[in-house]
Design brief:
With about 260 residues, the protein is α/β, with parallel strands linked by helices. It is about 35% helix and about 20% strand. The longest helix is centred in the last third of the chain and has 17 residues. The chain starts with a strand and ends in a 5-residue tail after the last helix.
Length: about 260
Amino acid sequence: MDDFARRTVRVDDADKTVYVAGSGPAVILMPEMPGISPDVARFARWVRDAGFCVYMPSLFGVDGAYPLVEARETIVRRACVSAEFRAFTGGGTSPVVTWLRGLARLAHAECGGPGVGAVGLCFTGNFALTMALEPAVIAPVVNHPSLPLDDPGALEMSPEDAAAVAQRVARDGLQVLAYRFDNDRWCTGRRFAAYRALLGDAFDGRVLNSDTANTDPPPFFRDVVGCAHSVVTAHLVDQDGHPTMQARDEIIAFLAERLNAQPQ
């Protein structure tokens, strides 16, 4: 990850490592469980090369490493009991989202433009939406959101935050782009239905056939996740015209349209 600047960013007296690269409007790219893998970094480079400044916060795991099966017993369990995350039903919005909103404000101040994009993946998928309570966030992308883990039809946010997000959608014309595979057991059709019930036509949930997923993902995704899940990272097939590559291109086009980015 030598092509990213490694920064320590303080928000509300809390320090986190953030990897930054590129120029143009800011995009906050949050890692999927169990961390910033080479596949997550690859997606960050694609976004950077499309004309954005990518801010990638380290929230859990080993930065730059391919996740192993053992991460289930260390990284995943640790995150599930962490005070920063609300992995189960009834916990409300994860407190780490407050920090991420502060990062969005900082990134907007540094990069300018009409606003900031936010891309969540898996464990952080829904964070992209709840970050939109920060006015600077104008392009949320929710990828295969897995929280809460114990209720496939619930959303990882407090009732107050859900109502506030719905109000912002109605007031500002916010659009939300989302992706999942059809047989994903961590992000089911019930979860997308819950988003649609909250957001109406502002929720653009796109579903890919699981048969198109990469059949040889890293061990953690093969043995722990156990199904097609990570559309633009671990289960992406890097071939021109492939459905997962089309999803990547659609995300970048959505960010460009919303953030008025100039193509590179």
